[in-house]
Give the backbone structure.
Amino acid sequence: MFKKFSKSNVLVIGDVMIDAYWIGQVTRVSPEAPVPVLEVKQRDYRLGGAANVALNIKSLGANPILCGVIGQDEHESLFTKLLNEHGLSNEGIVSLPQRTTTVKYRMIANKTQMIRVDEEDNTPLNPEEQIAFVKRVDDLISRKSIDSIIFEDYDKGLLSQETIAHIVSLARSKQIVIAVDPKKRNFHHYQGVTLFKPNLKELKDGLFQDDETLSLKQIHKLMQNFAHKMNIDYMMTTLSERGIAIYDRQKDNFSSYPAFLRKIGDVSGAGDTVISVATLSLLAGIPATTVAAMANLAGGIVCEYAGVVPIDAAVFKEQLLKEALLP
């Protein structure tokens, strides 16, 4: 299976960002306001968003090509430095003068996150910026032998209905597998994709469901209806502590799997790992039900680590054998 992974070229299109962790201790309250004072001892910067999906793809042995936009600002060089450190190319990164490089700062004291500060611009790309970005995507698809495209949508303004429709149409004409990790804004714009993977909150938001809790039967119906309406081959929904569910439209088959028992450290980035494992597994010809179980396991593994981290392939292999999930 991992040999098949190594032959896959995956174009990851989406909102890229930097995950910043400022770590220290609190020993006093500010005299200026009744707030704790964080004495920073350590700064840690990591690739996040679509860039973390690319890291997961690379960790699993495949070849990621990352495509997104950053700003021509003080964080541009840091983002490029992080790409270089992880052996990722910047050939798909478009640097725009009027854009802000997204940075999410987590302020952590005594192993507890105090606050998160987001520095970002989530307004849609203007027409000129959109043309530059789509041109870069078209160029990569024409020059590279792309097996799959992953849309990693974080609602930061990169992806629009027109951009999505153009890329999906081009990918389908070349028989490229298309996987999507969606957000609410573009939820209904991914007609005809191969794999659509919202989490439960995104599913409820995208389909305007107000129910606090949904039964598996209700989730099945929502996924079934949406998959048929949108001509989606596989609809997969992560259900947090309830595990994962997948609907196969061609077979009209619904399956769900409970979560693996884990010591949860941080759920950040788990969805990035799930979409990466699921996409590569589908490319490797693994049955959909097994794909869901494997992705479920992988998402649980990364939740044991603090902060956003990609899957460790060696640990994943070991756990696959332990749980007897390999087809």
The domain at 2-17+49-99+121-322 is CATH 3.40.1190.20 (UDP-N-acetylmuramoyl-L-alanine:D-glutamate ligase).
